[in-house]
Amino acid sequence: MKNSGEIVLETELPKAPPSPAPQPASGLPGHLQDLSDRARGYVEAASSANTRRAYASDWKHFSAWCRRSNLTPLPADPQIVGLYITACASGTAERGMKANSVSTIERRLSALTWNYTQRGMPIDRKDRHIATVLAGIRNTHATPPRQKEAVLPEQLIAMLETLDRGSLRGLRDRAMLLIGFAGGLRRSEIVGLDLGRDQTEDGRGWLEILDKGLLVTLRGKTGRREVEIGRGSSDATCPVVAVETWIRFARFAKGPLFRRVTGEGKDVGPDRLNDREVARLVKKTALAAGVRGDLSEAERAEKFSGHSLRAGLASSAEVDERYVQKQLGHASAEMTRKYQRRRDRFRVNLTKASGL
């Protein structure tokens, strides 16, 4: 373990992860300079803006802990990283903060691994100082994941009825809820949509309106995937009609699909919505519709989020499981089953089938 014996100045530590693309030499020909610039652009495209922000924040958190502990974050030292995740698990990594959850610690460790790799200092996560400590943290502190409540079709319809159909905001929110549910989309995928292909730098996908429905193309970590959203059985619950209506009254022809409504609800701005707006929308409409009225308001607010739409489709679509798996973009059927809140777990009874 490296101890510098002195406090490391904050100015010595980068506030955000540097680009791994090599910096061009001073005499680099112009055409290679262009390639270098493009390489940095591709590096940015390799991970989402949210991921990069989270990794930068975790590196800053680690660096601050190192300063307070009179340690240096560079070069990579597995023993220092092991002590850091121990501090995170025990609640001593930051003054006045509670212990981090196992999922947060694993994310922080992934961020450190990424940051060290970009600096040309790969760190071995299998090193005993890291792997053994992390295994102990998981065994001691791991808890079952808290799944968000699935929004079921009858609940979604009630939520839609709480929205004002005569306002731009109501039309937008209606389209967001319906396309999020019918597409099984993540909240970042909902707000990341553009009206057409390659219209914005921060877009995560685009849509095409066809006779039979919407074809949504999404960019992901493993490439592009297509999501087919068919038309509904009635205009009142049809995601395609909702999107078409929003576009028509919002009066824009390109750029982000879901934007801020300004001017006392009379104007549509150019800015893309933040993905947190999807979670707020689901919570607000679920509360207004009285969904899960058997629970307190605080409990209901905790149970619903943007993920509730995705889980709702998986739980309610009465089709072959492989179609749900494809719609959600899951690599395995096991992951899809985790989203199926109403799935009959005892549909196949092996106890009786064995003769008992």
TrEMBL record:
Q: Which GO terms describe its biological process?
A: DNA integration; DNA recombination
Q: Which UniProt keywords apply?
A: DNA integration, DNA recombination, DNA-binding
Q: Where is this region: Disordered?
A: 1-31
| Database matches in InterPro entries | CB, DNA_brk_join_enz, Integrase-like_cat_sf, Integrase_catalytic, Integrase_recombinase_N, Phage_Integrase-like_Recomb
What GO MF annotations does this protein's record show? DNA binding
Could you tell me which residue ranges the Tyr recombinase domain spans? Answer: 146-352
User: Any signal peptide, and if so, which residues?
Assistant: none
Q: Which residues form the Core-binding (CB) domain?
A: 26-120
Name of the molecule in the record: Putative phage integrase
Question: Organism source for this protein?
Answer: Rhizobium mesoamericanum STM3625
